[in-house]
Amino acid sequence: MLSQLYYIVRSKVDGKYLVARINKGEEQTPVSYLLVFQENFEALSYLNTHGSDVSDRFIVESTSGSQLKAILQRWDFQGIGLVKDPLLPRIEFVSDKNQPFQR
Q1: How far is Cα of residue 75 from the mean position of the Cα atoms in its chain?
Q2: What is the pLDDT of residues 47-87, one digit of tens each?
Q3: Where are the beta strands (DSSP E) in 12-68?
Q4: Which run of H or of E encompasses 5?
Q5: Residue 44 CB neighbour total at 10 angstroms
Q6: Could you tell me if 50 and 83 are in contact, meaning their C-beta atoms sit under 8 angstroms apart?
Q7: Considering just the CA atoms, what is the radius of gyration of the chain in Å?
Q8: Which of 32, 56, 68, 103 could form a disulfide bond with 19, CB atoms 3.0-4.6 angstroms apart?
Q9: Residues 11, 15, 20, 21: is their CA dihedral positive or negative?
């Protein structure tokens, strides 16, 4: 994972990353997973399909696995949401505990 190249989406307006927020319960605060794509065109497809009216406000950045780890720590994300199919979307969530689940 550390040597592979990934693609993430970032806001041009405030620099925040595109994340999935998951509610663990009504009493708990939602946890955030950084959305990660395996190809540049998948990230662009996701934006055009699910946010065509705001897609011009985002950019796609490439990042290595080691940089991805640093981003997770810096922004205090629970883990990554690896987008398997940008059109549906089908996302595999992986936390630091390395326990994936489908959503």
Answers
A1: 12
A2: 999 999 999 999 999 999 889 999 999 999 999 999 999 99
A3: 19-22, 31-37, 58-64
A4: strand 5-11
A5: 17
A6: no
A7: 13
A8: 32
A9: negative
Distance CA 101, CA 28 (A): 19
3-class state of residue 21 by DSSP: strand
Please write the tens of the pLDDT for every residue from 31-55.
Answer: 999 999 999 999 999 999 999 999 9
Give residue-wise pLDDT tens across range 10-32. Answer: 999 999 999 999 987 888 889 99
Nearest CA to 7 among 79, 96, 67?
67
Q: What is the pTM of this model?
A: 0.86
Identity of the residue numbered 29: T
Six token digits for residue 8? 């993430």
Q: Are strands 79-85 and 31-37 parallel, antiparallel or unpaired?
A: parallel
- Among 22, 51, 40, CA closest to 83: 40
81, 79, 80: which is closest to 90 by C-alpha? Answer: 81
Burial class of residue 53 in the structure, from the number of CB atoms within 10 Å of its CB (0-12 exposed, 13-18 middle, 19+ buried): exposed
